[in-house]
Amino acid sequence: MTKKRVYEFAKELKLGSKQLMKLLNDLDIDYKSHMSSLSDEAVNKVKDHLKKLEQPQDKQKEANSNKVKSDEEKKKKLQKKNKSKDQRKGKTKGTQQNNAGPRSRKNEIVKAKVEEIEIGESISVQEYAKLLGIEATDVIKKLIGLGVMATLNNEIDAETAQILGAEYGVETKIKEPEKPEELEDIEDKPEELIERPPVVTVMGHVDHGKTSLLDAIREENVTATEAGGITQHIGAYQAQINGRKITFLDTPGHEAFTAMRARGAQATDIAILVVAADDGVMPQTVEAINHAKAAGVPVIVAINKIDKPDSNPDRVKQELTEHGLVSEDWGGETICVPVSAIRKEGLDTLLEMVLLVAEMQEIKANPDRPARGIVIEAELDKGRGPVATMLVLKGTLKVGQPLVAGSIFGKVRAMMDYKGRRIKSAGPSVPVEVLGLSDVPNAGDVFQVMDEKKARAVAGEIQTVKREEELRRSGKISLDELFNSMQAGEIKELNIVIKGDVQGSVEALGQSLERLSTDEVKVNIIHSGVGGISETDVMLATASNGIIIGFNVRPDNNARKAAEKEEIDIHVYRVIYEALDDVKAAMTGLLDPEFKEVVLGQAKVRATFKVPKAGTIAGCYVTDGKVTNSAKVRVIRNGVVVHEGAIDSLRRFKDDAKEVMQGYECGVGLENYNDIKDEDILEFYTFVEVQREL
Ligand SMILES: Nc1nc2c(ncn2[C@@H]2O[C@H](COP(=O)(O)OP(=O)(O)OP(=O)(O)O)[C@@H](O)[C@H]2O)c(=O)[nH]1
């Protein structure tokens, strides 16, 4: 018998080369590429395995023990299988066909007991078979015919189920996916509402002076009015004019505004449109006008830079009329205030106008109810964990209260106002920095205070729905993708999970990576988030046959172990363009051999000591692997890398040590780094040369 090459054998089995190669890996069969020859033994091992998949799992044991079946019988089954596949070749959706499963020995036509079924996003093979009233073995066999390897308990996605249904002449309806439970609002009675400060967003074209205006107002109307006060940057602040307050969202540009609107939440009551008097209405000015119009938010125009000799406020007003904003002094309704952010002129008038518009808008809220509002900014702080700037829109937020923000559960541990002062409660329109969330929510997420049990349950439900949605998008067992890769024998999509230390870089990296998509390979970001790389991230990458990219974060121990087991590639970077370069190179097959990092071990810092001349020494316990005195080291705090460098000294008791194994204590000094803290994790690694692949 001539030896079969991988791709030939794949063809014979009607599988894609990639699929077969994955199977070979699973079965520990050695091969180099799709051109490699396979031994008879390997071929039989694969065939046996496929046959086993056709049997219900509880029968598999039995099958194993009955393994000594005659070769005759084996052949028969295979023939039957190929026959049924040949029949399928000419299949069109909706045709019913003869299907002889291994257990339906008499070639009876397999017919479903129903004409129509309704399923959710996915269904297990067992349940599916039950719904149709068909032997599960028959369903598994059909799935294999379609290139999907699934056992009884595996889930198939809705699309696969539909195509499968068509084979049995059954119409498969898909239930609308459950929407993540809305964070239910409480209705307020009109008599409960009282005035609250207006929330203002500053928008405008690049360089027209948004930041300068926000800074000028902050200096004039926040710090100056209260001697010695220093404003913190928390993404929002409150200014005072004539004893009344105005809340400014301190994120210039309409990104924040649109992100919130995209989540169906609206925090802004009034938009200040900054237009430079020397430049006039520009593309982003028009964009800002359109956003405000779409959101039904009133616009006040700040005609900025009037100090400039070539400023021409009338020209600005003229141009604004073309976009439906007619200045009051020209008989229209739009308030236009000439200002100079640099000279701090016109600011008071601008703020008075904001209050005037606010009065007309009747901006009110009920302070006496569980708080509801919006996340303005959020990040993973190296020392404090998840930190979110939140704007209370209704009710009063108090320390100790449980809440759900987006899909994140939290219990307010501490709150700071925009001056960094600790506060115990925050009423409507008050921006606060909140500690105590279990994870980092997204900017624009709505938050709602509710009782703890409910908050945990709601957050859990929303997360499940979100994860299911992500899994669905990741194309797990999606026929489209399988067929594509089967036909090409190559992967057509590069699925990536991104984790990073701050939302901004995660988003930037995601967008840049997606832009690398070419006609040949599409880059999909199937999940991105802030925080260390976790086991769930690995599971997500496994489900979608993807890779993980970490930016300034590391996998935790469980994640690393899972990644090893599932053979998931994790790549970590500290510079965005390096990540982009690598992915680009992998996509064009141009990766050079590289020195790959190998993690040697981890240690936990239990105490730190200041030693004259040597600096700070970390008293550690080696929790995993080992540490060697030549290793490189990474300091990890709350899943975030805070330092990378070399080891200066490694000691056991008083003596220098070459290496210290898991389970032992040691003292570690780092080169040029003394900021080690208790509870830090030290990760030791080294480099080996390997051929690169992504
Ligand atoms: N002469 C003059 N220059 C101003 C005034 N306001 C801002 N500028 C200048 O205009 C330039 C842009 O100002 P920014 O405040 O950075 O503008 P921005 O709209 O926030 O810009 P982006 O954040 O890049 O969109 C800076 O060089 C400011 O010094 C003003 O009232 N008069």
From TrEMBL:
One Gene Ontology molecular-function label: GTPase activity
Main location: cytoplasm
Bias (Basic and acidic residues): 42-75
Region listing for Disordered, in residue ranges: 40-109
Pfam families: EF-G_D2 (PF22042), GTP_EFTU (PF00009), IF-2 (PF11987), IF2_N (PF04760)
GO cellular component: cytosol
Annotated ranges, domain Tr-type G: 195-368
Top-level taxonomic group: Bacteria
Keywords, ordered alphabetically: Cytoplasm, GTP-binding, Initiation factor, Nucleotide-binding, Protein biosynthesis
Region (G-domain) location: 198-346
InterPro entries: EF-G-like_DII (IPR053905), IF2_II (IPR044145), IF2_N (IPR006847), P-loop_NTPase (IPR027417), Small_GTP-bd (IPR005225), T_Tr_GTP-bd_dom (IPR000795), TF_IF2_bacterial-like (IPR000178), TIF_IF2 (IPR015760)
Family membership noted in the UniProt record: Belongs to the TRAFAC class translation factor GTPase superfamily. Classic translation factor GTPase family. IF-2 subfamily.
UniProt cross-references to HAMAP family, sorted A to Z: IF_2_B
Function comment: One of the essential components for the initiation of protein synthesis. Protects formylmethionyl-tRNA from spontaneous hydrolysis and promotes its binding to the 30S ribosomal subunits. Also involved in the hydrolysis of GTP during the formation of the 70S ribosomal complex.
Name listed for the protein in its UniProt record: Translation initiation factor IF-2
Species for this entry: Metallumcola ferriviriculae
The organism's taxonomic lineage, starting at the top: Bacteria, Bacillati, Bacillota, Clostridia, Neomoorellales
